[in-house]
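Supplementary Data S3. Sequence and structure tokens for construct A.
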Amino acid sequence: MSYQVKFHPNDSNSFLAPSSDNRIYQWDIRTGNVSQIYNHHLQAVNAVVYFDNGRKFLSSSDDKKLLVWEYDIPVPIKYIQDPEMFSIPYLGLHPSGDFIMGQSMDNSITTYKCNDVTVRPNNKKTFRGHNNSGYACQVSCSPNGKYLISGDGFGKLYIWDWKSNFLTRKLQAHDNGPCMGAIWHPLQPSWVVTCGWDGVVKLWD
């Protein structure tokens, strides 16, 4: 079973699908076939995110590892692993392209500095205050990169200032379960859309 689909940013015919069998499948929609398999995680692969203009991507897994890959090459170029790391079921890219954000199961959002060479943890920029443990809540940024948003397991929506890490606002977005999705509108800078287990999609202004 696949947990996510991510189209390549520069090739609309190719997408990655991280899956429960510990693999990441690269599909070609023109042929309907798998064109590459990435198989180095030890447990289910939860999420992937492209960076470096699609030349590389990062994957996260229940094995509590992050692997850095060059696109279309099935051998990781870097392992990110620490005894204190938690599983990260969601990954997102900052609009600047310089940072990757990870929804960590220790009730925090961790960040990683990424460039054309490597990915490394950015321990000075960690966002806390929400309760997401057990839920793969989406993480996203405002189009200008100044604010970070995430839902949590109690249906709340959290907004942080990216530069200061300061929690600027929280509100009860959904009832009877978690707020799973939260994303900024790409053209209307004041609009945010959320969804939750209550079966409701909301537009916030």
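Construct B, processed identically:
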Amino acid sequence: MSLKRTMSDPSSVPQTVERKIHLNVGGTRYITTDSTLLQCPESMLAAMFSGRFPVPTDAEGAVFIDRDGSRFRHVLNWLRSGTVPSFDSVWRYEEVLEEASYYALQDLETLILEKIEALQEEQARQQKEQEEIKQKLSQQQQYQVMVVGKNGQPATPNTVASAMRAMQENGGMENGMATGMVSPNGRSIAMTGTAHSPLNFADDGMDF
């Protein structure tokens, strides 16, 4: 017995035609399809557009939903492509979470809650880093040190450089550094750092 392979006539295959849906969500208009709105069978949207219940329409025939229209775009984008919005503020996520809860989109709710948790952890980490930096800065002290050149003359750049090295090496400065240029009279520079011992160069009259 031989089997003969035949091609089906395309015209004989039932075609599923997506129905275009016009929405008016709180005054904001959207156009989508019934297959998009039926993505989640247990959702409120699936129930609304299942054909089992009458739905309110506006004067132009669009289905009216009395919700925030700007928030609904995040719901619709997720239904269309699974896209979850990204924000840098928790309250923005909470707005979408409220809509996901209203439309009974449990999977979207879960994803938004995960986003909120991740953002809160990142914000806590950044805040901790900022507090550590502030604490470190508060422990530092600033010193004004007089640098005198030979014979009481204004210090030359080489003299200032030598003084800075001496202060960092011998003055007990941790992470000591110059924070500004030499003063107009050529005799002082600013130093910052944590001092292990007092700096007395200003009174020593040292001549480098």
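The chain has seven helices and six strands. The beta strands are 20-25, 28-33, 63-65, 141-146, 173-178, 188-195.
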